[in-house]
Structures are given as C-alpha cells and as structure tokens.
Amino acid sequence: MKYDVLFSGFGGQGIILSAVVLGRAAAMYDGKYAVQSQSYGPEARGGASSSTVIISDDPIQYPKVLEPTVYVIMSEAGFQKFGAGAPKSALMLIDSGLVQSRPQCRCIEIPATMKAKEVLGKPIVANIVMLGALVSVTGIVGFEAMEKAVLDSVPKGTEELNIRALELGQDIAQKGGDA
Amino acid sequence: MQGNDACAEGAIAAGCRFFAGYPITPSSEVAEQMARKLPKVGGTFIQMEDEIASMAAIIGGAWTGVRSMTATSGPGFSLMMENIGYAAFTETPCVIINIQRGGPSTGQPTMAAQGDMLQARFGSHGDYSVIALAPSTVQELFDLTVKGFNLADRFRVPAFLMSDEIIGHLRERVEFPDEVECIPPKPIREGMLPFEPEDDLVPGFTPFGKGHRVHVTGLTHNEKGYPASTDPDLHEKLVMRLVEKVERARHEIADYDIVNPDAEIVFISYGAPTRAVRQAFLDAPEKSYGHLNLRIVWPFPEDLLKKFKNARVFLVPEMNLGQIAREIQRHVDQPVIPIPRLGGELHIPAYLLKCAEEQE
User: Fold this and answer.
1) pTM as predicted
2) Cβ separation of B346 and A61 shorter than 8 Å?
3) pLDDT range class, residue A178, cuts 50, 70, 90
4) Residue B189 falls within a domain, yes or no?
5) What residue numbers bound the domain in which B52 lies?
6) In chain A, what residues touch B111 (CB-CB under 8 Å)?
7) Which of A132, B49, B236, B283 is the most buried (most CB within 10 A)?
C-alpha cells in the first residue's frame, strides 16, 4: 500500500511539522518507508505553504509527490493552490472553519481550528487535531505510532495538550466529521 | 532525518572537529547542525565573514591536523574558487559540501540543480584534480560525507560533496553505524621532504607543530615547499603529479551501481535524478534498460562505460544542460543524449521512459 499525502495551509499552522510527524510515525514506529519534502520558499512565511509525505510498505525511489491520493487542507489559499484540482479518486480532509470551497472528491470536514480553541483553548494545535482525524479516517499509520511521533516532535510541557488534540481529531472523525 | 542534518552527522562521525562557513540556502542546516554539535565534542565552529574566508579557515584548520569542512551552495561555491585552487596546490585535505541550487548567480535559492558539476572539477584557475561525490539518498549524504573525509586525507585534495536541494532537504530514514572507518593521512616518512611524493604520488602529511618544518605556499614550490616558480620543468612535474595522483586512482575508487549491463539503452545519472531513473524502472518492469549510478563523479571512471557492451545509446538526465553528458561523450563512440531539467524540479519518471522509448 502506498499513500501520497499533501498537507497545505498557511505559514505558521505547522503544515511542515504535520508532514514530518506523519513521516516519523510511519518510518520510526510503524515499520514502513517514508519520505517527506516541502515547498521551500518565501511562501513559508504566510502564503500557501505545502508539504508532502510518501508512505509505503516498499522502499521509495521517487521522492516527490506527483499526484496526491490524500489531501489535508487547512486554508482557502492552500485549497486554491493545491487542492482545487484534486482528482475524484482522492480523499481530502479540510479544516472546515477555514476552507470555504469544497472539492469534487470525497471530503471529510474537520473544524479543527475551531474545536481546538473551543475544547482545548489552543487553536495552535489544530494541525495535530487534523493528524488525529487523518489517522482515524485512513489508518495510514497506527494511532500509537502517531502518538509516539507527536511526543517526539512537540515542545516539552505541551505533551498532554498535543495528545488531547490528537484524540480530539480522532473523535471528530469517528463521528463522521462535520459533514 | 533531513539530508543536511545527516551530512552534519556524517562529518561529526568522521571526526570533523572544525567547521568554518557562511550560511546560504539551501545548505544552512549543515552549518546549524555543526554549530550545535561541534562544541559538544570539543570541536570549533566559526561563522565567517564570507565564503572565501571560510575556505581559508578550513585550509588553516586542516594544517593543524584537524578534519575540517565548510558547506555552501552555488554563489558561495563561486566565491570559494580561489582558495579551492590554493587547497589543491598546497595539497590540503578538506571537505566542501555544496548543496546545489539553481544558477547562474543567485538564481533559485530554494530550488535544486546540478549546475556546479563542471565548476567543481575546473572552477579554479590552472590544472589540478579533485574528488567529487554525489549522494542520491539521505543515507548517502551521511555515508559519502564520511567517505569524502577519508578520500580527502588519502589523496590530500579538497573533496566535494555535490548534493542538491532535493536530497539536502529530504527527510527519510537513516541508519547510523556504531562506528565509521576513519583513515588519517599517512605521515611524512623519515628522511622524506614535506612535498616529496611517495609511490602513490601523494606526499606524507604531517600537520604544523608535529615535528616537521613545513612551508606552505600557493606559488609553484619544490619538495621542501619553497617557492620555485620560474623553473618550467619543476612546475610541469608538480602540476602533472597533482592531476595524476587522483586521476590514476579513478577506477580503484569508483563508487557506483550498475543495473542490466547487457542493455542497449543505458541511463547514466548521479544525485537526485538517480531516483527518477529508479522509479522509471519500477514503473516499467517490462523494459530492460540499463543504468549506471555514479556516487563518485570526479575523477570520472570512464572504464565503467565499457561494461555496457551492447549499449547503443546513453541517456543522461541531469539538472543542468548536460555537464556530465559532455564528459561521457568524450569516452564513447555511441551517441550520448542529455536529458536536461532546469527550474528546480526533478525529472518525471514517465518522461524518462518516453525518452528511452524514442530510442528503441
């Protein structure tokens, strides 16, 4: 099985970190192969930033994603730039409070930023909420692998907050999202 | 782990204890990691005022007997050229990491290229020879950095790690060995002069303060190291030796992978495009094209081309306008077709297959 995952949002949402955490969960804790790369330029300072991860049971040669099969979109600009052309066969998770448009493909609406603020008081963990939802919907990596990768990657003192964010995302997704 | 971080890890593992550099995208993570790690292992990190000074500093570091390194990208690489020639002529072992970006000039800071491959070989004035390695995975950024230090010491030359933005910024799994092999330069033997070559054409290397008086100069010098710049025969002999000591070892040190040596249509690549070729082969298992992947590009191991006995054509995808394709063409009679890609993106595997199918 091979997943080509694209994350997009605006600079500061933790788009690149999300991809790094997912790749780490797969490569370090789930016995899979993963390669992660990112759009790397001035847009990382506020415009539409993006990052990709390829996760596979087999070694990965080509390191770039040519056509994502899974999208995680956290801003309207990110949707317009990277998500609008998603093929019908793709799966898209969107932060439904921040993305107004809807794709042609299967779409799961996760009001991540809103719920992170409401439930956890910290909108900054919205990207981790999205990761929780992603794991729940796709099973790309196991929840435990994701938990370990999150704990590896977040600042000291925020571990509990981030794990709660992960669980919140899982919870929203299990209820079918906002759709 | 990110490629640039793996490069720094490789340097530390290889015993590099001096880094002087000037940060530049897309290589800056190498300097960042060295700044973090060197003080913890008793090493020294200096942020220099520019790249030519960075080169000067690592040449000085090397002459104190410390494995020394700098890291840069195209614009900084250009600025280093004068002192790279000095390192070559003074036979100073050092490692230069070049995470290539789009050029010429400041070009594309955040995008990948392989446009400095000929500059690595010929960029400084005069004739000399160097070693250039090309990683295509994050693991190889670690492994070849270690290898670069060993080759630099063995041949007393600047060794270049010619990577690119794609591999430098890629994150994938790396396995660090418990221990890496570090082979120091051989010391000056009793009765030998500091620039008197041994049978392998490489003089012994004894750093400053270790018992030999050594004069180091960028002027043409005799075996004592003293200037002798008006002696035509001495100059010719010295320059020939500096080139020959590397070139004659080119097949012995060659580092490569060969796939399907009986093929008629053969891809040759190094660095990131190697991964596009390998993906193309996975996507078209029914095809039986050949592939030569080079991990050491300079000195160029031309005998490898003869291993493809049935080759009708060589296809060379590079992220430049055919710099190494030009080198390959010097050695073979068959057509060598460059597949250039500029702009920063990697070749698309389907396009490589199309190029090969056109030759069937």
Assistant:
1) 0.95
2) no
3) low
4) no
5) 3-169
6) 41
7) A132
**Pair (B126, B263) in one structural domain:** no
Task: List phi, psi (to 5°) of A11.
Answer: -55, 130
Spatial separation of the C-alpha atoms in residues B37 and B35, rounded to whole Å: 6
pLDDT value of residue B229: 93
Of the candidates B40, B42, B43, B21, the residue with the CA atom closest to the CA atom of residue B32: B21
* Tally of domains in chain B: 2
Cβ-nearest to B348 among A20, A37, A66? A66
ipTM score assigned to the predicted complex: 0.92
Confidence of residue B277 (pLDDT cuts 50, 70, 90): very high
Of the candidates B109, B110, B275, which has its C-beta nearest A63's C-beta?
A: B275
Contact indicator for A105, A85 with CB cutoff of 8 Å:
no
- Nearest-CA distance from B44 to chain A in Å? 28
Residue reference for tokens 């030009």 = B326
Enter the tokens of residue B69: 């390194």
Q: What's the CATH code of the domain at B29? A: 3.40.50.970
**Minimal Cβ distance to B171: which of A23, A40, A64:** A23
Q: Are residues B44 and B140 in the same domain?
A: yes
Domain membership of residue B130 (yes or no) is: yes
Sheet arrangement for strand A70-73: A106-110, A91-95, A70-73, A2-10, A48-56, A33-38, B171-172
Last residue of a domain, one of B169, B202, B232: B169
Domains of chain A listed by start with CATH number: 2-174 (3.40.920.10)
The pLDDT tens digits of the residues spanning B35-88 come to 999 999 999 999 999 999 999 999 999 999 999 999 999 999 999 999 999 999
Give burial (CB, 10 Å; 0-12/13-18/19+) of B283: middle
Is residue A179 over pLDDT 50?
Answer: no
Place B357 in a pLDDT band, splitting at 50, 70 and 90. very high
Residues B277 and B156 in one domain: no
Which chain A residues have a beta carbon less than 8 Å from that of B169? Answer: 37-38, 40
How many whole angstroms separate alpha carbon A17 and alpha carbon A165? 15
Residue type, B189: R
Same domain, B292 and B149: no
